[in-house]
Amino acid sequence: MMSENTPGDQQGWLSPQERKQINYLLRFLATVLVCVLLASLFAGILISIFQNG
Q1: Cα 3 vs. chain centroid, distance in angstroms?
Q2: Do 14 and 22 contact (CB within 8 A), yes or no?
Q3: Is 5 inside a domain boundary?
Q4: Chain segment 2-43, per-residue pLDDT in tens
């Protein structure tokens, strides 16, 4: 009894629904990270301008 190609084992441990949710979550986290980086960069530029002026 070889149960190598049962469809559940081929996809790993995530169903397509869960994989889609994780993709959305990763995309959301990446967007938040980019926004935070841009905001900190912008704040750093503003602070340096105010300190020099």
Answers
A1: 35
A2: yes
A3: no
A4: 555 555 555 577 899 999 999 999 999 999 999 999 999 999
